[in-house]
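for the recovery benchmark. C-alpha cells below, seq after
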C-alpha cells in the first residue's frame, strides 16, 4: 500500500471549513491590526488575531440573546478590543469602526482576485 499512490486526495468539507475559518481569522486579524496600529499605535499581528478570535467568541455567545443580543454583542466586542489594547472605550470603538472599514476593503479585494468565500472573523458586519 503506497501512501501517495493513485489520484490526489480531495479536500473534504471539514478540511474546507478549517481553511475558511483560518483564512477568515487571518483577515479579521489584519483588519484589527491595521486599525489598532493606526488608532493606538500599538500591537503585534498575533495580538490582533487573538483579539479577533476573542471578539468572535464574545459575539457568538451574546448575539443570540433575544431583543438586546446585537447590542450586547457589539458592546462585548468593543470591550474585547479595550481589554486587548491600551485604550479607553471611545478609542476602542474607533478601532472597531476602522477594523470594519479595513475588513470591507480587504474582502472586496479578495473577491476581485477570486477568493470570495472568506469573511473577516472577529469583525462584525463583514
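predicted aa per position
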Amino acid at each position: 500500500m503506497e501512501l501517495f499512490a493513485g489520484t490526489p486526495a480531495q479536500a473534504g468539507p471539514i478540511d474546507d471549513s478549517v481553511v475558511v475559518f483560518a483564512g477568515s481569522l487571518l483577515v479579521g486579524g489584519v483588519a484589527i491590526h491595521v486599525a489598532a496600529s493606526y488608532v493606538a499605535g500599538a500591537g503585534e499581528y498575533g495580538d490582533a488575531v487573538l483579539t479577533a478570535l476573542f471578539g468572535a467568541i464574545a459575539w457568538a455567545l451574546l448575539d443570540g440573546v433575544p431583543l438586546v443580543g446585537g447590542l450586547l454583542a457589539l458592546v462585548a466586542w468593543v470591550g474585547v478590543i479595550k481589554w486587548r489594547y491600551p485604550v479607553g472605550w471611545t478609542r476602542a470603538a474607533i478601532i472597531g469602526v476602522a477594523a470594519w472599514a479595513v475588513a470591507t476593503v480587504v474582502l472586496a479585494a479578495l473577491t476581485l482576485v477570486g477568493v470570495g468565500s472568506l469573511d473577516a472573523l472577529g469583525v462584525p458586519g463583514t
